[in-house]
């Protein structure tokens, strides 16, 4: 059944006024920020049309100054979507430059009225059961960001990343939030209640180069939010060079991760070992606050050359004498550990070494890689 409607007058960003139907609350709003997505929209919108969810649904699209015919394509789907009971809300702006994904998401949410929000990128495709299964999961996991497994296209692109998305355990959704992969449930799969978004958000509107998804994810965890995943593939997740994620620098992500690690983990530990005496381990050490550098009791490694050297000297330190941190074989080191070795890159050797010490992830070690 379509939600009740009445006319309202709104003002768009260009200063014009237009009449718009004001809608009663619906169960789920599908949130689509859009920028020059014309070539993908037909596939994206057809998939929304064929959702098997039986509750009330709304599509809310905000066009972030597209220069192609994206908005015309969406308008072309309005009649078919509304015939299926899916309300359609479309707006946007025509500024010279786009204002960024965070801005577009916030605008799409503000103009929507769903009790739950299903985030959908315009270049991805949801499977028919996505809204239904994530809506059901939201009742089991209130105040949570709910994701799902994905199919990556083109096949074989970002193979390690895709495997990581799909194989994390429920516990690892909470423990591996410090890795370079970003949120443990990827943004294009997010589903949450409107009330939780309002408590955590809005998204950062800094624009290009700002990881608005990671900032929101960390803030959700700070607010005590949960992380959950429907263990079925519910989204075709497209990889292409124009994706906005490519505009975010590694250094930006690194700093956010270090700060969050210090806030959530290292502040609770009296001392710890950095697992990796190489480049990444040393970079982490140098990135720590002076107080947390004092807590590093050792580096550990499997490289005999590093171990035989015996220590790492922090040359940039203003202390005299300069700090010298012991370098040990991992079997001679003591927990807790911050592991700075890339996952899924050692043919299982890292994981075997960790398992041999009978360590518990989230208590005895965290991955930061």
Automatic annotation (TrEMBL):
InterPro entries xrefs: Glyco_trans_2-like, Nucleotide-diphossugar_trans
Glycosyltransferase 2-like domain: residues covered: 29-197
Sequence segments annotated as region (Disordered): 1-23
Gene3D superfamilies: Spore Coat Polysaccharide Biosynthesis Protein SpsA, Chain A
Pfam family, one: Glycos_transf_2
GO molecular function: hexosyltransferase activity
Coiled-coil ranges (or none): none
Compositional bias per record (Basic and acidic residues), positions renumbered to this chain: 8-17
Full protein name: Glycosyltransferase 2-like domain-containing protein
């Amino acid at each position: 059944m379509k939600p009740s409607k009445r006319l309202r007058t709104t003002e768009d960003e260009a200063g014009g006024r237009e009449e718009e139907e004001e809608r009663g609350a619906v169960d789920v709003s599908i949130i689509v920020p859009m920028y020059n997505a014309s070539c993908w929209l037909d596939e994206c919108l057809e998939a929304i049309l064929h959702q098997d969810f039986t509750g009330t649904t709304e599509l809310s699209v905000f066009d972030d100054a597209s220069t192609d015919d994206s908005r015309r394509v969406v308008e072309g789907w309005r009649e078919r979507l509304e015939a299926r009971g899916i309300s359609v809300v479309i707006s946007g702006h025509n500024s010279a430059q786009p204002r960024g994904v965070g801005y577009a998401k916030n605008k799409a949410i503000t103009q929507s009225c769903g009790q739950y929000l299903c985030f959908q990128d315009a270049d991805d495709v949801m499977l028919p059961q996505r809204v239904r299964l994530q809506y059901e999961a939201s009742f089991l996991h209130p105040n949570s960001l709910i994701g799902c497994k994905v199919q990556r296209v083109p096949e074989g692109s970002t193979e390690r990343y895709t495997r990581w998305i799909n194989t994390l355990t429920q516990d690892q959704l909470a423990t591996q939030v410090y890795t370079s992969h970003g949120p443990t449930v990827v943004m294009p799969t997010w589903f949450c209640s409107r009330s939780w978004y309002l408590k955590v958000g809005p998204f950062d509107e800094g624009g290009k180069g700002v990881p608005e998804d990671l900032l929101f994810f960390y803030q959700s965890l700070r607010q005590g939010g949960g992380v959950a995943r429907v263990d079925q593939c519910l989204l075709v997740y497209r990889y292409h060079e124009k994706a906005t994620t490519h505009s975010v620098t590694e250094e930006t992500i690194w700093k956010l991760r270090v700060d969050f690690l210090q806030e959530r983990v290292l502040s609770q530990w009296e001392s710890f070992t950095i697992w990796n005496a190489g480049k990444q381990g040393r970079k982490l050490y140098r990135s720590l606050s002076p107080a947390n550098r004092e807590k590093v009791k050792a580096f550990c490694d499997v490289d005999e050359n590093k171990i035989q050297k015996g220590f790492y000297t922090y040359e940039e330190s203003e202390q005299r004498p300069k700090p010298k941190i012991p370098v040990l074989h991992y079997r001679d080191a003591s927990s807790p550990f911050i592991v700075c070795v890339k996952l899924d890159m050692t043919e299982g050797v890292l994981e075997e070494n960790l398992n041999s010490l009978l360590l518990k992830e989230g208590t005895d070690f965290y991955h930061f890689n």
